[in-house]
Amino acid sequence: MMTQPIPKTSPTRQKKNVPWFFLATVFLAIALGYSIYSVPTYPVAQASKRENSKSLEDSTTLDRTGGFQKTTLSATPKPVDAPEGMVWIPGGEFSMGSDTACESLCSISGVTQDAVPIHRVAVDGFWMDATEVTNEQFAAFVKATGYVTVAEQTPTAEEFPGAPPENLVAGSTIFAPTVGPVELDNYFQWWSYVHGANWMHPEGPDSSIRGREKYPVVHIAYEDAVAYANWAGKRLPTEAEWEFAARGGEAGKLYTWGDELTVDGKYQANIYQGKFPVENGDAGLDGFKGIAPVAQYAPNGFGLYDTAGNVWEIVNDWYQPDYYVRLAAQGAVSKNPRGPDSSFDPAEPTEKKRVHRGGSFLCTDQYCTRYMVGTRGKGEHRTASNHVGFRCVKDVSDSTQ
Ligand SMILES: [Ca+2]
Ligand SMILES: [Ca+2]
User: What domains does the chain contain, in order, with CATH numbers?
Assistant: First the structure.
């Protein structure tokens, strides 16, 4: 596939009453970049590093280099009658975040900038989907409700005043590998905004999800995930719940399965091997070039599949790069933290972003190692792409009613 620069005349959806030229030349780039920051882009990563460093430098008394302590699990008995497809996460207390030693594992620095310091967090027990939400699960929701995702909605002239009508098209962002090797300094080289791309047409209007019932649903914006969760009687996890669950009861491991990327020579998650982002560059040494059906690798200690890799998972927290710094500064165990009250990223202060976790099938040690369990991602909340999905959780009180 030829590289298709993201058309500068395509709309984004996240802002109203913004001059069209501004949207076209700046916002689109930033918004799509943020979706893509889930595969962090070089310019975004650099900008974030610069800004984040400043905010983190302001806190000079904190230990940023380590400090994982033992995970303790709640003694509360596991409730009976597990909801279908969900596993019990017992709750407890753990060390959350990332060690700066992880920086050396990625060719591009900044991976742990927003994931330090390691800080102590306690969460209550909850049920969690064992897998990412699949196409067939999302289809059941749409069939029952008639729900229309953000990517299927045609942007309006009111939303984007001044936009040429031909540019007001529904669509989403798709990874488009380059013909040959490129410098990893411009993500426009490998992402396209594609008219007609949505959860039912994940690679564009000519594609379908037929035969992909067990694949994770993609092209999901935050509000789409929330709508599904509400329908299912569930909710999105907090970032703390997600990381506690992903660690599987272990403490301070680099990955959800341990400290080595492969076990007996075998990959433990669907990520990306080979030259990024080149056409046919993904060697698929983990068994999959591109997205995979859910649950193709061993589950973690709690029975969760694919918390690392396959698709990024939207969590409920707003994104702020120094949130962990502020929690740690409180000097106590943070109980059930729910994230900051609003989104703020100094690098793109006008964008509203939710936290994404776990990395995707596009994460590679050349560009993004955020399949490491303690690291964080982020995405503009109304922008979707073909490597971001979600999973849900359910409180005990909800499952016993
Ligand atoms: Ca793979
Ligand atoms: Ca995942």
Answer: 1-401 (3.90.1580.10)
